Amino acid sequence: MITSDLLFIFISFTTIIATHERTNGIVCASTEIDGTFADENCAGTLNQASCRIEPKIQPKMSSKLFMCDFEVFGIVQGVFFRKYTQKQASSLGIRGWCMNTRDDTVKGQLEGEEKAMNEMKHWLQTKGSPSSRIDKAVFSVPAEITNYSFKDFSIRR
User: Fold this and answer.
1) What own/partner pairs with CB < 8 Å and gap ≥ 24 does 117-126 have?
2) What is the pTM of this model?
3) How far is CA 142 from CA 37, 63, 106, 121, in A?
4) Tens of pLDDT, residue by residue, the chain (157 residues)
5) For residue 14, which phi and psi values (nearest 5 degrees)?
6) Is 100 designated active site?
């Protein structure tokens, strides 16, 4: 009976050590009390600076920037298409511009990271403003750029 109790304690202690983060060789943990966690102070005698767990630093991947021109055909003038385009682009972090053309289309330029650019292109092809009707959207081949040319997304007149 004593052997099984010691084995249980050893396995439990090993599991606790394995599931808690360490800093400077000291186990920092929290205790669960009634479903909530109360932080312990790492053996009580250490100051908080030595007990603090630093966040793990993830290496930030450098995101490539792209630009492309676009033109949207259909009922896209007089239906707040440019205003909705500006709002959508800004929410995705896309920079650039858009404007009405004499051919009753909306054209412009997009700059941003690949994922956001793809989301914006999809929005221009399928959504637009609530009152618009998009027949087609044409995009130039995306070109990689090193820096933004625009500080935000604007409407040109």
Assistant:
1) 117/66, 117/68, 117/142, 119/92, 120/88, 120/89, 120/92, 120/94, 121/68, 121/70, 123/88, 124/70, 124/72, 124/85
2) 0.61
3) 50, 15, 18, 11
4) 555 554 444 445 444 444 444 444 444 444 444 454 444 444 444 444 444 545 555 555 558 999 999 999 999 999 999 999 999 999 999 999 999 999 999 999 999 999 999 999 999 999 999 999 999 999 999 999 999 999 999 999 9
5) -60, -40
6) yes
Give the list of residues 6+ apart from residue 115 with CB closer than 8 angstroms, or none: none
Catalytic (active site) residue 147: no
Considering the candidates 22, 100, 133, 157, report the single residue annotated as catalytic.
100
Which of 41, 82, 102, 118 is catalytic? The answer is: 82
